[in-house]
Amino acid sequence: MTGPGDDDFAALFEASLKTRRLEKGQAVKGRVVAIGPEVAFVDVGGKGEALIAIDELKGEDGVIEVAVGDRIEAVVVSTEGGLTLSRQLARSAATAREIEDAFHAGLPVEGRVESVVKGGYEVRIARHPAFCPISQIDVARTADPAEHVGHVYPFRITEYREGGRNIVVSRRALIEAEQRVRAEEARRAIVAGAVLTGRVVSVREFGAFVDLGGGVQGLLHRSEMGWSHVPDILQVAAPGEEITVKVLRVDEQTQRIALGLKQLTEDPWATVASRYEVGQVVAGRVTRLAEFGAFVEIEPGVEALAHVSTFPPTGHSGGWAKSVPVGLRAEFEILAIDAEKKRMGVALVPQDAGRGAGAAHADAIVAGARVVGKVERHEPFGVFVFLAPGRSGLIPLAETGVTREADLKSAFPVGADVEVMVTEVDPLTRRIRLSRKAVIEAQEADELREYRQRDAAAPAERFGSLADKLRGALERKGSR
Question: Using H for helix, E for strand and C for coil, what is the string for the chain?
Answer without folding.
Answer: CCCCCHHHHHHHHHHHHCCCCCCCCCEEEEEEEEECCCEEEEECHHHCEEEEEHHHHECCCCCECCCCCCEEEEEEEECCCCCEEECCCCCCCCCHHHHHHHHHHCCEEEEEEEEEECCEEEEEECCEEEEEEHHHCCCCCCCCHHHHCCCEEEEEEEEEEHHHCEEEEECHHHHHHHHHHHHHHHHHHCCCCCEEEEEEEEEECCEEEEECCCCCEEEEEHHHCCCCCCCCHHHCCCCCCEEEEEEEEEECCCCEEEEECHHHCCCHHHHHHHHCCCCCEEEEEEEEEECCEEEEEEECCEEEEEEHHHCCCCCCCCHHHHHCCCCCEEEEEEEEEECCCCEEEEEECCCCCCCCHHHHHHHCCCCCCEEEEEEEEEECCEEEEEEECCEEEEEEHHHCCCCCCCCHHHHCCCCCEEEEEEEEECCCCCCEEEEHHHHHHHHHHHHHHHHHHHHHHHHHHHHHHHHHHHHHHHHHHHHC
